[in-house]
Amino acid sequence: MADYITFDNAQALSYIEQLGEFFEPNAQLTCNEFGDGNLNLVFRIADQNGNSIILKQALPYARCVGESWPLTLDRARIEASVLKKHGLVCEQHTAKVLHTNDDLAITVLEDLGHMAILRSELNLAKTYPKLGADVATYLATSSFYYSDFYLKPAEKKALVQEFTNPELCSITEDLFFDDPYRACERNNYAPELEADVLRLQQSPQLLRQVAQLKHLFFSAPQSLLHGDVHTGSIFADQSDTKLIDPEFGFFGPIGFDLGSFIGNLLLNYCAQNGRIKETPKRRQMQSYLLTQIQQCLNDFENIWLALAAQHTRDLSLQAPGYAQHFVEQIIKDALGYAGTELIRRTIGLAHVVDIDGIEDDSARLQVQKQALLLGEQLILHAEECENKESAYQLIVSLIQ
Ligand SMILES: Nc1ncnc2c1ncn2[C@@H]1O[C@H](COP(=O)(O)OP(=O)(O)O)[C@@H](O)[C@H]1O
Ligand SMILES: CSC[C@H]1O[C@H](OP(=O)(O)O)[C@H](O)[C@@H]1O
């Protein structure tokens, strides 16, 4: 892309001024880069009256590693396009795109700074009552309307092409399904976890189930996924929930997004064992997390089935009982993917502060062991769950 340059604060500010779209002509603007994600730059441009917007720019490499890990700028186009597509069917829970420039790999977004990033909040034991229901609405609605149940076959095939995202998918394929299950330089864990890691790496049953999950990820363009539904990609307040950052979006297995979300709530559940010392307070937080998982599973299925009953356009897919069967398989897949998220966030390249932020070494190690065991058991037993109730019961039985 010939015109690409990486912005600094002054260049981001000047770009927004030249657009002349977002602020009063004589506004006194300030700009500050404050991104804390693994991949991109995030600038806030604000005026003297407290109005502000977000300018996100992709770097030609992964921010967390540096220039030694080159990465396509096309991820900015994918991210903005997924937000727009998901916004069309679920405006309430999707961050709004205000402007894009593919050559500069720029997306201008509404500033959600009045809300809070969910991961940080959960780590402070703050709770959001609508979380499970809202994420279920987002996942069920976006995945239904971009599935074969709703899209015309030619429309769907064109979208699959538009959202082909090989470089970012390759990161997921490596980090979720390969690295943790073999000796790999990118893995990152304490020597005290070696025996736990070897147990995973030497379990033929586990490796077979992980192979199945990876194969599905490769080969099941069921719907347009967000692709990275972790708790750092969710803004929340007491009345609403918004999803950001779908640069890993592509047409893939619907259970991957649902499983990533559940996996992140379970990572936080495990982390609370090392974070909150007082038992009643810890139990309260953990019970909140389980309630949100249950709500999310219930609402996801109910919303999906209601949409399918009313809006399925493909004649064959209207066959009695087929939508139910499809959603039950999504939930099984989700449990498996939740397990892979627990494992890769514990011993792979990209950890979560929920666990890494536990100061006491021995408490952190115990939490990591629990997360690995929980992930392993979820992957091994996911296929046994006949429905959402047994899926939830499996989680409860493994965690308590
Ligand atoms: N629309 C937004 N409004 C307010 N802050 C945002 C917005 N988008 C991103 N951010 C901030 O920037 C951080 C990194 O954004 P993210 O999209 O996760 O970047 P990356 O793609 O590098 O992971 C978020 O944790 C959040 O603090
Ligand atoms: C080298 S990418 C690692 C990891 O980072 C992404 O998350 P985010 O950009 O939101 O911080 C994604 O989960 C990748 O797996």
Automatic annotation (TrEMBL):
Keywords, ordered alphabetically: Amino-acid biosynthesis, ATP-binding, Kinase, Methionine biosynthesis, Nucleotide-binding, Transferase
Pfam families in the cross-refs: APH
InterPro entries: Aminoglycoside_PTrfase, Kinase-like_dom_sf, Methylthioribose_kinase
Listed Gene3D superfamilies: 3.90.1200.10, Phosphorylase Kinase, domain 1 (3.30.200.20)
Pathway the protein contributes to: Amino-acid biosynthesis; L-methionine biosynthesis via salvage pathway; S-methyl-5-thio-alpha-D-ribose 1-phosphate from S-methyl-5'-thioadenosine (hydrolase route): step 2/2
Enzyme class: transferase
Aminoglycoside phosphotransferase domain boundaries: 31-262
PANTHER family listed in its UniProt record: METHYLTHIORIBOSE KINASE (PTHR34273)
Similarity annotation: Belongs to the methylthioribose kinase family.
Identification of the protein by name: Methylthioribose kinase
Gene designation: mtnK
